[in-house]
Write a structure and sequence with these properties.
With 603 residues, the protein is α+β, with helices and mostly antiparallel strands. It contains 20 helices and 21 strands.
């Protein structure tokens, strides 16, 4: 068979690239035995030790294996015979390149080399596309050329290798590309400066104070007729906005650093439970505030372990149900209207609403004859002391965890919801604010009280007509451009007025001017009725403090340019609270109707 020189490298030996698995020693394999078996098939010309994922001494696990080698073997045996030596090694990475191997295989070997700065000859030696003797011949040739006055000769190592037909041109080019990538990576690393997180937090706080004082200055400038002052203030405001964006950007880090740690969790936990589970990650490049990243790791850990333990079935059971033996847990993240949405999805057995409700009644969490919606039944898993595990283990069954998960997420001004289909799987959705410090907000007022909406969620604003106001008094929604838009009277809601629509209050509503802010969140829209629309502001979010601990619907407060305090609304939490209040209200109406009917029968 004719061999294409452009497609193959002319080597007389095998090149074996071996990376042993982390559990090699635990499985009883001795690397010395492997080398004796390799030597029986030919002559080992060279071995290069490659440490992989080597940890610090105090972090090393003495039972784990961190070894790898690049082996040059001169043998007349077939590739299949050599590969049989390694057939019982689990989780090892093995590449065997026979003589005249394809360029693409050498390309893969070069790409797998550690990201360390190496000379061209060293790269080619480590992938066994070049021998020591060949390299020494080229170095001697370079030295001879330099002695006769060729000053550029020392830069022609690759060209000399190709000219002497020692290495294919494509292999040399790939090695040079590897060199350039390593140099660029090293240069990029030099561009980064490590900063103490405490200093970074102080910087954000100072920028927040600048934002507050900048708003005050803007308000003062508006009352003074001075063009030069107005121009200077405008320029300072624009610079302050850039400063704010850059300062907040310093705290944004990819969530993939948190996601990737769960590969080992999946592997170890599934092994303990004798299950086959694969982790899939999407959106790892999505950035989130460093403070949020640090605090979301533990809740995610608990949710993933629950998916593995409660969600994914045993391999034999999955096969019996017509599912793949290997279960799948998916972690994905995406940006969405000023928030980041994180989802933990499994393709397991899902949640049985009847079982959850029975367990809720047994634990006293649900009262007898209490009517719950399907979503409320699913949310029972977030109740303290609630567990459906049959046995207590180191993973689950103790009745603690999910309530802590929800509480920790709510502390971050986020919320968590659950959706499940019996036999299909479960999806847990977490929504978190991108930053905990400063946001672009939309300022509104209700009875002279100021409130701030996250600007990213504001879809549009409009003024309601008298007919629309009357319409909302009947069924709490309006038809907006042939679309049904649920609405909430924030004035009525914050006042906790359950008397609803008496005639005097209705007349007062119609006389008042009403504006509606259309909020879009999670691909859903809701209209919030307010009195005045006061425009965009930069809001420095501050915590409400211990007195208001546990108050839902509010993310914190901010100080306006006037010095007044405005509450910052937590839109996801507010929507969930409104849904719950509406359900309770209609449930009470149903109970009253039933009681009224019973009384009529009695009389």
């Amino acid at each position: 068979m004719e061999i294409d020189d452009k497609e193959h490298t002319a080597t007389e030996h095998y090149h074996i690239s071996l990376r042993l698995g982390i559990d090699t020693f635990r499985q009883g394999f001795d690397p010395a035995t492997l080398f004796r078996q390799i030597a029986d098939l030919g002559k080992i010309k060279e071995t290069i030790f490659i440490p992989q994922n080597l940890l610090l001494m105090d972090e090393l696990d003495p039972e784990s294996c961190y070894l790898g080698w690049e082996i040059t073997l001169l043998s007349h045996e077939k590739k299949e015979v050599i590969s049989e030596i390694f057939q019982f090694l689990d989780a090892c990475q093995l590449t065997i390149l026979p003589p005249q191997s394809h360029f693409s295989e050498y390309q893969n070997l070069i790409e797998q080399l550690p990201d360390e700065e190496m000379a061209l000859g060293q790269i080619l030696l480590q992938t066994s596309s070049l021998t020591h003797n060949e390299l020494q011949m080229v170095l001697n040739q370079q030295q001879d050329n330099t002695d006769v006055g060729d000053s550029a000769a020392k830069h022609l190592t690759g060209e000399l290798l190709v000219e002497n037909q020692m290495v294919q041109k494509e292999v040399v080019e790939e090695a040079l590309n590897k060199q350039n990538k390593v140099r660029e990576k090293k240069q990029n690393a030099l561009n980064f400066v490590k900063v103490d997180s405490a200093k970074l937090d102080k910087l954000i706080n100072l920028v927040g104070e600048l934002v507050i004082n900048g708003a005050k200055l803007n308000q003062i400038t508006g009352h003074i007729a001075d063009d030069e002052l107005a121009e200077t203030t405008e320029g300072m405001t624009m610079a302050l906005e850039d400063l704010r964006e850059n300062a907040l950007g310093l705290r944004m880090v990819p969530i993939g650093t948190t996601f990737n740690r769960f590969h080992r969790v999946i592997r170890d936990t599934s092994k303990d439970l004798e299950k086959e589970i694969k982790l899939e990650i999407y959106g790892a490049e999505t950035e989130l505030d460093k403070t949020v990243i640090e605090k979301i790791g533990d809740p995610l850990m608990h949710l993933i372990r629950n998916s593995i333990d409660h969600g994914i079935e045993m391999p034999d059971e999955r096969q019996r149900l017509g599912k793949p033996r290997e279960g799948r847990v998916t972690l994905q993240a995406r940006h969405e209207a000023g928030y980041i949405t994180i989802q933990i999805i499994d393709d397991g057995k899902g949640l049985d609403a009847d079982v959850l409700l029975a367990k809720g009644l047994e634990k006293g969490i649900v009262k007898e004859n209490e009517k719950l919606s399907r979503q409320e039944i699913l949310n029972l898993i977030f109740s303290a002391g609630f567990s459906t595990a049959q046995e207590i283990s180191n993973i689950s069954g103790r009745g603690v965890g999910m309530d802590v998960v929800r509480r920790n997420i709510e502390v971050l001004r986020g919320n968590v919801t659950i959706d499940s289909e019996l036999g299909q799987g479960t999806t847990i959705t977490i929504q978190l604010p991108l930053t905990l410090a400063i946001i672009d907000g939309f300022h509104v007022s209700i009875d002279s009280e100021s409130y701030i909406f996250p600007l990213d969620m504001v879809h549009e604003c409009l003024t309601l007509t008298a007919e629309q106001i009357e319409e909302t008094s009947v069924h709490n929604y309006i038809t907006l451009r042939e679309e049904v838009l649920p609405i909430v009277h924030l004035k009525e809601y914050f006042a906790a007025d359950n008397t609803h629509f008496n005639e005097a209050y209705m007349n007062h509503r119609i006389r008042e001017r009403h504006n509606i802010v259309v909020i879009e969140f999670s691909n859903k829209k809701i209209g919030l009725i307010v009195n005045e629309l006061l425009g965009e502001v930069q809001a420095v979010i501050k915590p409400l403090g211990r007195v208001f601990k546990g108050l839902s619907g509010f993310a914190g407060f901010t100080i306006l340019g006037s010095g007044l305090v405005a509450l910052v609304l937590d839109i996801p939490g507010l929507i969930q609270q409104v849904i719950g209040s509406e359900h309770d209200y209609f449930e009470s109406l149903t109970q009253k109707s039933i009681c009224s009917g019973v009384n009529q029968v009695v009389h």
